[in-house]
Amino acid sequence: xxAPAKNPDKGKGPLIPEVYIDPPSQRLYYLSIGLLCQAIKAxxxxxxxxxxxxxxxxxxxxLPVDAAYCLVLSQLRIPRLRYSFSVVALxxxxxxxxxxxLFGGITLNLGAHGRDTVDAQYGELPSTSTSSAFxxxxxxxxxxxxxxxxxxxxxxxxxxxxxxxxxxxxPGGTNYCLGSATDxxxxxxxxxxxxxxxxxxxxxxxxGSVVDYIDVSSKELKSIEHTRQLALQSxxxxxxxRHADDYDDYDDDDDEQDKKSIEKSSLQNTQSLMHLRLPKPxxxxxxxxxxxxxxxxxxxxxxxxxxxxxxxxxFADIPSMxxxxxxxxxxxxxxxxxxxxxxxxxxxxxxxxxxxxxxxLVEGIEGDHETKAALPTGADGQLPLTTAxxxxxxxxxxxxxxxxxTVGSHLYVLEEVSDAVGNVxxxxxxxxxxxxxxxxxxxxxxxxxxxxxxxxxxxxxxGKPTAMRIGGEATLVIGANEADKLDLPLNVTLAYAPRAGExxxxxxxxxxxxGDGYRDxxxxxxxxxxxxIESVQGKFCAGDVLSPETCEVVERPMPSAKIDWKKIHECxxxxxxxxxxxxHGAAPFTLHYTTQRDSEPAREYQQTFPxxxxxxxxxxxxxxxxxxxxxxxxxxxxxxxxLDGPVIDQIVHSPALADFALPSGARNxxxxxxxxxDAIDVAVDLRGSGPWNVELQIVxxxxxxxxMYYNLQSSPAMISVPIPAKVDRxxxxxxxxxxxxxxxxxCTRPITVPGxxxxxxxxxxxxxxxxxxxxVTVLERETAELPLRLTGDGPWSVxxxxxxxxxxxxxxxxxxxxxxxxxxxxxxxxxxxxxTDSQCPGTVVPNFDIYRVQWVPRPSAKLSQNTExxxxxxxxxxxxxxxxxxxxxxxxxxxxxxxPFEIMYNIAQNDGNGGTSILDQPTLTSIQSRTRLQLQTTNxxxxxxxxxxxxxxxxxxxxxxxxxLHRSERLLFEQxxxxxxxxxxxxxxxLAYCQNDDLRPLDNxxxxxxVLEGTPPFTVNLMIKNMAHNTPVLKIVEVNxxxxxxxxxxxxxxxxxxxxxxxxSVSDAAGCAHAELNPLETMIWVDVAESxxxxxxxxSRKDYCVGEAAQFQLEGxxxxxxxxxxxxxxxxxxxxxxxxxxxxxxxxxxxxxSIAHQQKxxxxxxxxxxxxxHALPSAxxxxxxxxxxxIHEGDQAEIVFELDGEPPFTFTYQRSESVAKSGRxxxxxxxxxxxxxxxxxxxxxxxxxxxxxxxxxxxxCRYPPAQPDGTLVKQK
Length: 1276
What we know:
Number of strands: 93
Number of helices: 9
Radius of gyration: 62 Å
Domain Nucleoporin POM152 N-terminal transmembrane: 22-106
Structural class: mainly beta
Largest sheet: 8 strands, mixed
GO cellular component, one term: nuclear pore transmembrane ring
Number of domains: 10
Low-confidence stretches: 1-8, 109-149, 247-261, 370-388, 1268-1276
Region (Disordered): 242-266
Helix content: under 10%
Protein name: Nucleoporin Pom152
Keywords: Membrane, Transmembrane, Transmembrane helix
């Protein structure tokens, strides 16, 4: 208490007047009440530690009592006990702190003596002896029962969990392969919490015939690591020394392995990385890793890795020079590709045609489709690292069909090859790095497809001859209409034949060669006749001869003229001279003449005429005598040829009016054509007074003829003009000119209007299909171009028909090119019927009127003959044999067409509602005509496969995506996937049984129920394991239902402790291996308790070992129910802890009749007991020392108890939490009681904690001694 405050509350006296109780008496009474409260508090404190009652209840009881005591004192205002408010508050806080210390509100770590220590020493002893517990607490007892300070219960065994030591092979999941015999693979091993001194791995050959076991020491591992580090440093130094220009994109690929590997900087503190050097291919399996302490590290799945030879790919042959191919001539070409590796192989390649790149991926390449050296599946039905295919290295040759129909540069590059185990090798390059001589490498092929050269005569052809001067030369031009520079020079075969009836010249055949840089060929000729191009051949490819393929060379005649003249004065009155020259030669013509007036010098003039007949008016402006002389004539071919013309000294006058009638739309084109007959009708437009007499002049190639037509009554008048004999025979052109016209007054007027040119055709137009085979094969529905050769003057109109479609009308098409193409889209036979050009109807060349069009067959697929399947005609589907879920299955397909192939198919499965749902729509690629299609077996049920589209090199799916096979043409097959059986426990609730019970259902709950999936009946393999003895028992159970509760009548729990029941495997009627079992769902724990027993601390004693209480040790799992008779009356006592004591409160006979535990289960009868005093037994854990043992997860520690006394022993041990750093006792986790005849007893545990012995009894006595408690036993 603090000192009283000075003069508090002056003027106020005590609450109780001094007349009633004087102040000293008030102080005495109130302090006595305070002492009484503290005495009661001390009694509660002792009772609290002796009865182990509730702690917080007493604390909450005294907190308000102490606060009220101080507050009431302040209100009584007793002299010398009066304090300020702050002092009162401090008093209350001090009392509350003491209450918290005494009753557990605050705990101080003061050593071994504390409530927690007592709990650890005694457990919850239901002893009724308060004085004994109190004396023990304050040290009055002669022995201490604390763990290591007790002479009878010595030592403790602490089990601590050490981190798991693991080793993982190839943690990055990287694939490894050996490129050559000198290569070696470095496979990493990730180690955690271990430093191995030895390592063992097995190397199994790829065919499984040889298995080698290799031990690697820590020294060898360090040597491998040292060599690897030196290699890395050397590689980094080399890389840094390279110039930046040498770097390309593919250098990044070299670093992919490093990115996948685990860098040491990313490792945790407990992890380390080692490497194995593997110089041979095979399956490498990590067998064990042992550290310096002899502990094997746990191997982390996957614990094996597959090392094979690296896959390779290349073209089979290397050409010695660049290849050149001809479009449409050489047909499709095949390259042979050589692949090697573990099948099936995948190949990635691309082609580039004229700069356009297309990528391709071909999968499923293998030498044959037979399974060789199949790997066995695991015990759980799961496949090992790869599927059950052959791992034998195969060499495969596959064809690559390439088309030569597209003109231009072709480049084929092999880029990448991968094998069945995931090794990917990049062998090609990108476009930027393809060398110019790419055709010489092993992974590239290039060639040029040249077009077919085509030649024809330029500016010459039928009806358009080439003229030459007499005695001179003409130049024929043979032009190449389509020719590639690589195909130059061209060799053209030219034939010459003189015209029929002409004896000059002899026939000849020559081969002409064009220059390397020139496509056209100029041919100088000096003889008239027919020149024909027979063939053309380029440097590599044969060509086509186009129309016109013939050229006629004719001689130009020398120009001549006949000049008629007359005076102009009879009708018109004009003065002058009219000359009418008729000229022969090649227009235009030029007349050279002179005029001389009187005695003046002669002046020379010239007049040009566009036609062979003209009119020249000479009308001098001055009068006089004029002499006109004609000197020479010039035409298109000859210049100033001397002319013996007339000398005229007359005055000439102009002619009268007349003209030809032009058809509508002809404008100024004065031309006519005729194909048949020896005459042609010409319309003449006459003006004036009729009837008229018209004089015409017919000008042929070499002569002229005048003809008079009389008594023409109307205008226009039709006049039949005969064709000159030579023109009528050979064809050609002639002119019709109006000479004069005479009216009814007999006045004749000369006519000078332009004449009409008449083209006489004696060669009729023709049409034919060009080519030797006259057939073409194109893709379905693709336009086919049928080559035509037309003669005559275009445009042409061609009629044709489709013989395979007789109901279709005859078609007509118009062409403007003599080398046109007839475009058709339907396959079949086409026939030419008729041709007409711009002037004349023609004929179809016999035997060249038929052309056949065929379609490239579409690819197809069917099941291989060796495929086991049943065809169902009802739905057109092939029924495949049933397989189990997850078991690899396939079908072999036989493909027709041109590789590579693309197969798009649907995968569907029943949806449970009577319909089907599509699972996937994959596309399979293959470069072989026989390929393997992997079936989906991951989901049980019926799976349907429908091939909807098939593509090949002719019909790639990218261009024919909309073309879907008709339902009747689709390949259908289906397969039933049998469900793999599985088993699991309905729940994970622990089961409880008593010792010697058989394994039968305990109740109607789902505890211990196994749920089965599959096709009944089932065979379930169970393993029952006693964790204490580590002796498993295997049981095989036949189950006919889909659920089953554990019921094995021939199995008894012979020993107490935890048991583990695990489902090892399950099989059903389908015969499939079971699905992967979940370890958490296929195991259940069973707690087996000992049969309840009550053991006296001294079974036949007449005197007690300690005190007057009869102490009993209870065996089993709490709580217990003890039945006993006392003086003939039956009593029942519940006990939650052991030991259990009964105090003889009255004379009589105490008989224990029975005891049960686990809520009145495992009941056992008990006989009468007698007592004697003997030495107390003792027990040691860890030889009486403090032992700390570190174990790894999954391992077990052996806790050895050494027992001293006279057997049999019954002792109680417990596992508690390890002592914290604060020194506070850890929480008790579990307590067990065991009975043994041996002086040593071992417990195996995989749990962490501190194991100590809390009590022990031998044949006579128990320690700690039981405390007498007469209040515990209650009569019922």
